[in-house]
Design goal:
By secondary structure, the chain is an alpha+beta fold. The protein has eight helices and seven strands, in the order H-H-H-H-H-E-H-E-H-E-E-H-E-E-E. 28% of the residues are buried.
Length: 265
């Protein structure tokens, strides 16, 4: 069972069952078309179904999977938009049949539902992608600071507010921060990255034992959080932007600054 699951995320060589079935169907039809016993249009339809099954597999491991990199996000977005386009095309064809009197108006219902599902999937992909973008911008802000600190260890105050506290941050500390935040604001602490993520790994960044909170340091939640962290001597970095002059990537990083995954690399 585990091997089957691993195959689903493994990429090109290990196809998920739906894709393998669609591929087999294409192979079979290609032979029939070459032998002159099946129409080419039938092969084209099977090829379209195969492409759709491949896109569905991409969405399964990106849209409904965990922990995306920016590249996987692009792959997810294009797969979702191809699936939407195919369903819009199918609806157009079904409408033509209705107009020609070859099908009933009722037959359009299933096509409309499919199109609606694909639109929701594309919306979900878009919102997931924007989360990954935000996460990436936060990680880039930290990368800029880490590079700066490597050049001048005492410097970089223009990139982030730094508070060293007692230098200790553990899972137990996080639980206390979460509880206090929820008590104060009646909603959970908006953690955008707890420990290492695919985005950090892609940047070669060791974010283990660190937590990013998606609040601007100057919004009420951010002001409160900084005061709480200082009061409890918990180390943090407060970022107001990813790159100077660019109003993205603001967040509060709790814990010591991240280090490179491979020293000197
Ligand atoms: Zn961080």
């Amino acid at each position: 069972m585990l091997l089957v699951c691993a195959g689903a995320v493994g990429g090109q060589t290990n196809d998920v069952p739906e894709v393998a079935r669609a591929k087999a169907e294409v192979g079979k039809l290609r032979a029939l078309v070459e032998a002159g016993v099946a129409p080419r249009a039938q092969l084209e339809k099977a090829e379209e179904a195969m492409a759709d099954a491949q896109d569905a597999a991409i969405l399964r491991r990106t849209l409904y999977g965990e922990d995306l990199t920016a590249e996987q996000t692009d792959e997810m977005m294009t797969a979702a938009s191809r699936r939407f386009d195919r369903r819009r095309k199918a609806l157009d064809e079904a409408k033509r049949l209705v107009e020609a009197g070859a099908a009933s108006q009722l037959s359009l219902g299933a096509f409309l539902e499919e199109l609606d599902r694909a639109r929701k999937e594309a919306d979900l992909a878009e919102s997931r992608a924007s989360l990954v973008r935000e996460l990436t911008e936060m990680a880039q802000a930290e990368e800029a600071l880490a590079n700066k600190l490597a050049e001048e260890p005492a410097g970089a105050p223009q990139l982030a507010d730094r508070y060293d506290g007692d230098g200790i941050f553990t899972a137990g500390t996080l639980a206390r921060v979460e509880m206090a935040f929820a008590r104060q604001f009646g909603k959970p602490l908006p953690v955008s990255a707890n420990g290492e993520t695919a985005v950090h790994r892609a940047l070669g960044f060791d974010h283990r034992g660190r937590v990013d909170v998606a609040v601007h340091p100057d919004q009420p939640e951010g002001v409160w959080l900084r005061a709480y962290l200082t009061e409890n001597r918990i180390p943090y970095f407060a970022f107001r932007q990813a790159v100077p002059g660019k109003a993205t990537g603001a967040h509060i990083h709790i814990g010591p600054m991240s280090t490179r995954l491979t020293p000197g690399g």
